[in-house]
Amino acid sequence: MIYTVECSFSDPRSEAEWNDFYSLEKLPALISVTGFHTSQRFKAISDGCPVYLAVHTIDRLDVLTGDEYHRKGGGNFARWQQHITDWHRNLYSDIGVAPAVNADELLAMCASGPDPLIQMGLEPLAMQAVALERFPERRWLAKLPRSNARLIENLEGAHLYSPMTEQLTSAHTVSTER
């Protein structure tokens, strides 16, 4: 399953420190949780969406409600909470393991359907929301070369994200039950 966390951050003075915390402490802690398999962070390069996106591959919803998840920092943003805005969490099924997006690539997320992505020669992966906010209900994601960003800039319902981190992978065996 794909677990997404999206948000913006309202305090420019502490934003760099928050990004260091999230990328260097929180992601490594989460990937160590049993049931987490991949984690990667992104920053939006298009308007009309939360600035930050984290994409995780997990086994099941109960991974997010377990003691290990909470003990290792899941859901714990106390120090930063007052500055986190436009926060959304979703759990999607259908695609298995999230694709790793390299530094020379972008992630496209589209809620208006796969056709525009397909017409650009991309291979979108369909995701169906199954838990948490469940909105948008359907999303398609695809990787594209950074040089092709202009092709998707004005696509309705689509947003582009640049990777902030490499995709982290766990030492746990990836389950086939997603």
Write the layout of secondary structure elements.
Layout: E1 2-9, H1 15-31, E2 36-44, E3 52-58, H2 67-71, E4 84-93, E5 105-110, H3 115-119, E6 125-132, E7 138-145, E8 158-163, E9 168-169
Antiparallel strand pairs: 1-3, 1-4, 2-3, 2-8, 2-9, 4-6, 5-7, 5-8, 6-7
Structure commentary:
With 178 residues, the chain is an alpha+beta fold. The chain has a single domain (2-169), classed as Alpha-Beta Plaits. Helix content is 15%, strand content 36%. The protein is built from 3 helices and 9 strands, in the order βαββαββαββββ. The longest helix has 17 residues, at 15-31. It starts with a strand and ends in a 9-residue tail after the last strand. Residues 173-178 have low confidence and may be disordered.
Keywords:
globular; disordered C terminus; about 180 residues; 8-stranded antiparallel beta barrel; single chain
**Class in CATH?**
Alpha Beta
CATH fold-level label: Alpha-Beta Plaits
Query: Can you write the helix and strand succession as a string?
Result: EHEEHEEHEEEE
Strand arrangement, largest sheet? 1-3-2-8-5-7-6-4
Q: Please, how many helices?
A: 3
Q: Strand count, sense and closure of the main sheet?
A: 8 strands, antiparallel, barrel
Average pLDDT reading: 89
Basic shape: globular
Structural class: alpha+beta
What is the helix content? Answer: 10-25%
What ranges have pLDDT less than 50 throughout 5 or more consecutive residues?
Answer: 173-178
Report how far the terminal alpha carbons are from each other. Answer: 5 Å
